Each structure stands twice: as C-alpha cells, then as structure tokens.
Amino acid sequence: MKEKIFSAIDALEPQMIDTLSGLVAIPAVSPLDGGEGEYDKAQYLAKKVEELGLGKPEIYNSNDPTAKNGVRPNLIVKIPGKSEKRLWVMSHMDVVPEGDRSLWDTDPFKAVVKDGRIYGRGSSDNGQELVASLYAAAALKKLGVTPAYEVYLAFVADEEVGSLHGIQYLIKEGLFRKDDLVIVPDGGNEKGDFIEVAEKSIAWLEFEVTGEQVHASMPQLGKNACRVANELSVALDEALHNAFPETDELFAPSVSTFEPTRRNKNVANVNTVPGREIFCFDCRVLPHVQLSDVMKVVESVVKKTEEKHGVRVEVRKLQYEQAPAPTPVDAPIVKLLEKALPQVLDVKPVVGGVGGGTCAAYLRQVDIPAVVWVQEADVAHMPNEYSVIEYMKNECKIFALMMADE
C-alpha cells in the first residue's frame, strides 16, 4: 500500500504545483500589515477541496471589521476514518507582506516555477505544507483508502500576527479534544529530521536608566546613566545565570539564556554625560522555570542599583510569554510521526525543543500535545522565498502515511 500511495502522490505533482501557484497569487496579508486578510484565499481553497472530492469544508469565521467582508475565515476539512481517534494537520493561509520589492527577482505574488522550486511569497510559509496536507488526503481518496483516523485538515487564519483569529479562535470554539493527535507543520529544517515538542519561555525586557545629564568635564555634578546601565547590565547577566543554572537536553542550547542585546542611542556628542540610557535583554527560559521568578531576580538587582547610585530604573516587558509544558517525547503524535519519517526520508528523527515562538504553544497551553515538523528551506519571510517541490512531495507522503497509519 505504501508504494501505491507514493505513486499516487508523484502523479499529483502537476496539480500540487498548480494549486500552490494559485495560493501565491492571493496575498492573504493581515489587516494589521496593510492587507485584507484570508477571505479570497479561503474561497479558493474551499473550491479546490470540493474539486478533489473531499466534500464541503466547514468555515469558522472570526469577526474582524478591518478585514475583507469583516471576517477572518478558518477552513476545516473532515475526512472520515476507521476510528473515532482524530488526527489534525494544521497549516495557515496568511502570509507576511513582500517587504522591499526591489530585493525580489520576480513578482512576489506571481508564482515562478524554476529549477525544482516554486518562487513567491507564502510558497514556503505555509503554502507548501497546506498543499502537502490537502493532496495527502486527496491521494488516499483517489486510492479508495479510508484513513486509520478521522482526519481534520485545518487551514487557519492570522498565524503571522498572533493567531487571535486562527488557532486561538478555534480553541475557544471548542473544536479540540485532549486526546487529539495534532501536527502543526510550520517549522523544521531541510533534512526533515527534527520534531519540535517544546519551546522556551520568552521575556524581552527593556531597561531605562534615568540619571542627570552634565558636561563630561564635571561628572560629579550629575549621575552618569551610561555607567549605571553598564553596571546594571553586567549585574543582571551574572545574577540571572547564577539563579537559573538548570539544563534540559531537549534544547540546544540546553540552558536558559539571558542576552544583553539592543542599546539605544544616547547623547550625540562625546563630552556630555548622558542622563538617560536604554538597553534590552532577550531572555529564553526553560519552560519549567516561571518567568515570575525571573522577574523577582531582575527586580532585586534593579532595586540595589537604584539605591547604590540614586537613579531611577524603569523595566518594560516588550514580550512576555510563559511557555507551556512540553509535549511528551513518547506522545502518540510523536510516535506516529517518528514511524512515518524514515519511510520517506533517510533520517533518524530527532525530538527536541526550540528557543520559543511557535503557534503550537496555544494547543499545549490547553493540554493538547502538539508537534511541529516540516522539511523546508529556511527562507520564510525572505525576498525570493521559495518552496522545494521535492520537499512538498515528501511532506505529502509523510502526511498520507500518518493518515493511513502505514
């Protein structure tokens, strides 16, 4: 049966290329980024689903008055299986804007097929996976194969700017069960061997030190915010690393990281002691550590600095997301994907975590074990974004094997 599935998918390659090219031609940019949303793309997909004999998709509209027709649509395609166990493959319809068009060699919203690739905005992120999941189901339908699970293809909105109208909306609608098998194909590598089951918490912190600006020849008359900021940055670095030394081999690096990053411009001339200094830390924290505990350390160091130097320090949270507990490495969805991967790719699956920021976190937050996986080139959001046709077919075969549990 496996070889029949693979042959059917190979035969569908021209249709897959045509469908992805059609998706590229529909921008589906969030209204927050100056676009109209996913309405037109959802209409295109709904028609394609019916053409492939997969029935009429259910549409869950999240209200958004700034989007075309006032809605952000989410499509759900249900395919009956041999059991009541449910397998979800969840890809997203929205794309980021094209950015600087002068950096593109082709029109970002007109697909170009060349050298085994499909160029265009959204071709890789996330059109490749959307098409792969759709045609995996179509291949099984063509062969008359009933999936081992009840398959749910979810084509969701709003992933690029927070998933409020997408995954988060569907969770609030009560579409998921605790025992669902969920794969979110929206992150991976070119080998296709990495299965993401966890992410770190993220805290982006901005520190503003306010002292007193004076002439640099008379520093005793002021309070040098630059010197205090330097000292505070070093003290925070040392205190945070000392407070949270734990390791978790799921991640690379295996430790929580606390990195001083951005430093804002202060004064324009050399001979002025700055009275204000702003700098940032990017903290990626192992999920078992509470960000509230991180903030206690930060607040303690800040208070000592203020008392020592007689300055004021304001701390702002630019991003602050506590990561949910990881998906267990032996979860059924992990095992199902581990079983399928070596049948298509010459790889040994690697299960691990990332630095943070996948939409699978919303599912894990409500105790639904989800995994993230793709085989893709790392070109998302870049000019001249492309999908590798061979990778798309590989994904299609893996999804089909998971659906059939072959």
**Overall shape:** elongated
Runs with pLDDT <50, length 5+? none
Number of helices: 10
Judged by helices, strands and strand pairing, the structural class is alpha/beta
Number of strands: 17
Radius of gyration: 25 Å
Beta-strand percentage range? 15-25%
| C-alpha end-to-end distance | 8 Å
Task: Describe the structure in your own words.
This protein is α/β, with parallel strands linked by helices. It contains ten helices and 17 strands. The strands form five sheets. A six-stranded mixed sheet has the order 1-2-6-3-7-16. Strands 11-13-9-14 form a four-stranded antiparallel sheet, covered by helices on one side. Strands 4-5-17 form a three-stranded antiparallel sheet. A hairpin with a 2-residue loop joins strand 4 and strand 5 (117-119). The mean pLDDT is 97.
The gist of it:
The protein is an alpha/beta fold and 406 residues long.
Describe the secondary-structure layout:
Blueprint: H1 2-11, H2 13-24, H3 39-51, E1 58-63, E2 71-79, E3 86-92, E4 112-114, E5 117-119, H4 123-143, E6 150-156, H5 167-172, E7 181-184, E8 194-199, E9 201-210, E10 214-215, H6 225-243, E11 257-263, E12 272-273, E13 276-285, H7 291-309, E14 312-321, H8 332-344, E15 350-354, H9 360-365, E16 370-372, E17 386-388, H10 389-404
Parallel strand pairs: 3-6, 3-7, 7-16, 8-15
Antiparallel strand pairs: 1-2, 2-6, 4-5, 5-17, 9-13, 9-14, 10-12, 11-13
Helix pairs in contact: 1-4, 1-10, 2-4, 4-10, 6-7, 8-10
